[in-house]
């Protein structure tokens, strides 16, 4: 029942019902905790000495943790239920090992993985472990998302985000194997790290002055927070993270293999790019335009499977059409070459009153599901 509710929660979210998906996930977590799935002994006590079944139980708990972290980011929830209980569950093995049925019972502990930074000998860990660690850092970001934090705390979390990449071992640095297969667990781990970076820095940057104030699916508006560094530095880090998310979107692989939560990551990346593009005016316009064009194309393809992609696609396209209107800039060679070959928006500042695309967030037709799913009924449309 826990696994069924977890999968159903993801599907409900992806079809455009985020609140219902979150409620179903909370039910799954409550049931898992009541069963004791967060304890080390649960898998061995209920696995019937079948190593793959024991691994399935362990993976279920960690999947609850990861999905709750991502949904908490979408809903801007500062606490996670899975972090309020002691988690003694051993870490998952590689996906390929699990798929081949070659699971083993001597999986590493969370403490062993955390201690690897200062260990004398290198240990091998699965890609899922790095995904779990990424969500742990994300949960720290969310804990200060809606409250003023001491500059040292913000810097400490930023240090963890920056350090994460350095501890990915050389054999896992390339997300694509020689055969062209993408390591989906590492793909999601990088996605979460860049997403968390945006959530940490955008509210403390000048980008928020041109960030949509109304809700957009997967990208709720944030409150302006006091800067702990220069606003330009925060803007640069948020923009760089959005660029990295668009780089993930550029991978040549079947998009159906990606988690539907990648839709939300693409949305937050495009919102940052549009905000930075507005701040830049014509500087580096082509870089932003190419990234947003890629994101829009990917959302278009994803909308064939997931309703929420179609919802945000309508809104992002309408905003992008206004911001990236060709007549606003003459795309000459001189205007497309940036002084520093970066597009972080440094040194430019305008007010929200100068941003014409904000008016689109008052258009009730933009969020209509009828534009891409005619005839479908959703909770607020009756039964």
TrEMBL record:
InterPro entries: XnlR_reg_dom (IPR007219). Pfam families: Fungal_trans. The chain crosses the membrane at residues 260-280, 292-314. Keywords: Membrane, Nucleus, Transmembrane, Transmembrane helix. GO terms for biological process: DNA-templated transcription. GO terms for molecular function: DNA binding; zinc ion binding. Residues 2-164 form the Xylanolytic transcriptional activator regulatory domain. The keyword Methyltransferase does not apply. It comes from Aureobasidium pullulans (Black yeast). The keyword Methyltransferase does not apply. This is Xylanolytic transcriptional activator regulatory domain-containing protein.
């Amino acid at each position: 029942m826990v696994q069924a509710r977890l999968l159903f929660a993801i599907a409900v979210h992806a079809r455009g019902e985020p609140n219902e998906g979150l409620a179903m996930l909370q039910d799954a977590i409550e049931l898992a905790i009541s069963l004791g799935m967060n304890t080390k002994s649960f898998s061995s006590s209920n696995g019937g000495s079948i190593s793959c079944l024991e691994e399935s139980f362990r993976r279920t708990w960690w999947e609850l943790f990861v999905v709750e972290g991502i949904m908490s980011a979408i809903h801007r929830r500062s606490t996670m239920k899975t972090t309020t209980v002691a988690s003694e569950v051993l870490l998952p093995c590689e996906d390929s090992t699990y798929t081949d049925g070659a699971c083993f019972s001597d999986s590493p502990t969370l403490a062993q993985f955390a201690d690897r930074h200062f260990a004398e000998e290198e240990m091998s860990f699965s890609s899922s472990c790095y995904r779990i660690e990424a969500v742990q850092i994300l949960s720290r970001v969310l804990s200060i998302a809606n409250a003023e934090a001491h500059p040292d705390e913000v810097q400490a979390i930023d240090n963890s985000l920056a350090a994460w990449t350095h501890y990915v071992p050389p054999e896992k640095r390339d997300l694509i194997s020689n055969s062209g297969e993408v390591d989906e667990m590492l793909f999601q781990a990088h996605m979460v790290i860049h997403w968390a970076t945006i959530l940490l820095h955008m509210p403390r940057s000048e980008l928020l002055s041109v960030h949509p104030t109304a809700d957009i699916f997967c990208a709720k508006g944030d409150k302006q927070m006091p800067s702990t560094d220069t606003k330009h530095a925060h803007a640069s880090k948020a923009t760089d993270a959005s660029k990295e998310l668009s780089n993930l979107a550029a991978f040549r692989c079947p998009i159906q293999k990606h988690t539907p939560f990648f839709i939300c990551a693409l949305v937050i990346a495009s919102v940052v790019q549009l905000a930075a593009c507005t701040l830049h005016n014509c500087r580096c316009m082509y870089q932003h335009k190419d990234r947003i064009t890629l994101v829009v194309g990917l959302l278009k393809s994803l909308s064939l499977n997931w309703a929420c992609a179609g919802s945000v696609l309508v809104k992002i396209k309408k905003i992008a059409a206004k911001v990236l209107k060709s007549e606003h800039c003459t795309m000459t060679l001189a205007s497309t070459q940036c002084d520093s070959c970066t597009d972080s928006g440094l040194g430019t500042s305008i007010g929200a009153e100068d941003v014409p695309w904000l008016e689109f967030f008052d258009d009730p037709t933009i969020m209509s599901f009828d534009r891409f799913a005619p005839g479908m009924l959703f909770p607020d449309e009756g039964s």
